[in-house]
Amino acid sequence: MEIGNLSRLIALYLANNDLVGPIPSLGRLQQLEGLSLYGNKLQGSIPNDLCELKMLYNLSLHSNLLDGSLPACFDNLTSLRYLSLGSNKLSSNFPSTLWRLSNMLQVDLSSNFFSGPLPLDVGNLKVVISMDISRNRLSGNLPSTINGDLNGLTYLSFAENALQGHIPESFGQLTSLEFLDLSRNNISGVIPKSMEALSHLKYLNVSFNRLEGQIPTGGPFRNLSAESFEWNKALCGVPQLQVPPCEDSSHHGPKVSVLVLKYIFPVIAAILLAILVIILVRRHKWKGNKQNRETPLPLATWRRISYHQLRVATDGFSESSLIGAGNFGSVYKATLSDAITVAVKVFNLHIDGAFRSFDSKCEVMRSIRHRNLLKIISSCSNEDFKALVLEFMPNGSPEKWLYSRTSTLNILQKLDIMIDVASALEHLHHGLQTPVIHCDLKPANVLLDEDMVAHVSDFGIAKLLGEGETMKQTMTMATIGYMAPEYGTSGIVSTEGDVYSFGILLMEILTRKKLTDEMFTSEMSLKHFLKESLFHSVTKVIDATILQEGEVHYTAKINCISSVIELALDCSAELPSGRKNMVDVVAELKKIKTRYLKDARTR
């Protein structure tokens, strides 16, 4: 705390150390111009007394464990030019005062938990050169105030949020723009043709959105590849972008029919559906429950699905609909009467423990909602039939991509899957009033949706920790190889056991080698194999599809992979006390990804 007494200090640089604890009071350092504390393990909130540093022009606190909201008094920092707060755990909405700092040149708020909409005031940053607000929880529309007034802006990233609406035409006025990333949002509409005027644009990524219409062909679009536009709903354009060709508008019917199909018909259909629901509800109340043996559980009261509906949707639970089988039952792909595709988990009630598995799934998942946890849509339960209706994940499990000859995952997709799974475990362990232990984490229990977002699934043997508990004992065994040592020998399950399983999962994703690979014996496991690689050569053990000697980003990838291996080994330590918790794991993975992206851009 005494460092705040150095009242004539001009610059304080303590970056990339192992500093812990809160940021001390620095309000008395009235002459301070530069403060760099990034790359440490600082915790707590950003202190309000930083707002008293009127001379501060560079504030770098990124890659720490800071939480809470941004101080509302930030507008007092009138000399601030560089603000870097990325890769922390900051949350809440942006204070409106932040955007009054109209002289800022660089703003990095990436990889945090900021939520809410981007305010129109973001357009006040008239001289900004770089703005990165990726990997947050922002919602709402892209502000139209990001326009030609920001004529010095060269780098702009809003990737991996929940932004929606259209790309504003005003983006075409950002004449200095060289880098634009809007990927992994819910942005819809067309790509504005005005963006053809961005003559300096070298990198564009609008993948994993809901864009439609023709991809512009002029200006920078002549040099862009298919990766810039993949995983959108209805884009069309030239063949080299791997999208369907655009239809000739002259062959389309009159605009009136389009309006009827797009606007009027859905309204009529919605009214008819509402009337039908009212009739069915009244009929149900009149008949009571005597004729219906199926009793949907309270976790999915918004939707009722009967045994008959499930039987029809799965073609009589036929083999052609079967997409997987496990210890407690089978999973079928089903198309409901309203054309929604779901997965139906039917429990084998003849196997001892299936009833408990069904009940535990319902208990665990009934009230849990998270972006990276598989969602239960409904359930159907009677004396001789129990099933859960789940979200359908069209891209299957990572196993499909790891061990397929035709499908592969690049390093960024692997990092994203790791971060998604870690975020799910962080929520289960630390985000709930009653912590949940998954107990059986492995690649087969991770599923990928249409946007390649990972969802943790299969809570058949999950355990709930009561108040004050840190572990439980169980007779139910998980999958050998992924199971923590204390789980296998004594049946002790804890959140640290999930961390161990996650470490093994990281190793499998990195190496593309199964635990049952013939090269692994009692003397040489996957963990020992990777541990030795850190002292010899990482290149000999890593999936060859993501690392090829001589490629442009080779060094950046080596550094990234080595960091993930070290993290995986920390997670899979033999003793539970030696393992990291999932809060730290998520922060470390995000830091690794951020560092890789920056290294890759500079090479």
From TrEMBL:
Does this UniProt record's set of keywords contain Plastid? no
Record-annotated residues binding ATP?
K345
Q: Which InterPro entries match?
A: Kinase-like_dom_sf, Leu-rich_rpt, Leu-rich_rpt_typical-subtyp, LRR_dom_sf, Plant_receptor-like_S/T_kinase, Prot_kinase_dom, Protein_kinase_ATP_BS, Ser-Thr/Tyr_kinase_cat_dom
Q: Where are the transmembrane segments?
A: 263-281
Subcellular compartments: Membrane
Pfam families named among the record's database cross-references: LRR_1, LRR_8, PK_Tyr_Ser-Thr
Q: GO molecular function: any one?
A: ATP binding
* Mitochondrion is among the record's keywords: no
| Domain of life the protein comes from | Eukaryota
SUPFAM superfamilies recorded = L domain-like, Protein kinase-like (PK-like)
Record's keyword terms, sorted: ATP-binding, Kinase, Leucine-rich repeat, Membrane, Nucleotide-binding, Repeat, Serine/threonine-protein kinase, Transferase, Transmembrane, Transmembrane helix
Q: Which residues form the Protein kinase domain?
A: 317-603
GO CC aspect terms = plasma membrane
Q: What is the predominant subcellular site recorded for this chain?
A: membrane
Q: Which PANTHER family match?
A: OS04G0122200 PROTEIN, PROTEIN KINASE DOMAIN-CONTAINING PROTEIN
Q: What name does UniProt use for this protein?
A: Receptor kinase-like protein Xa21
Q: What organism does the UniProt record list as the source?
A: Gossypium hirsutum
Lineage from the top down?
Answer: Eukaryota, Viridiplantae, Streptophyta, Embryophyta, Tracheophyta
Point out the gene that encodes the protein: LOC107935904
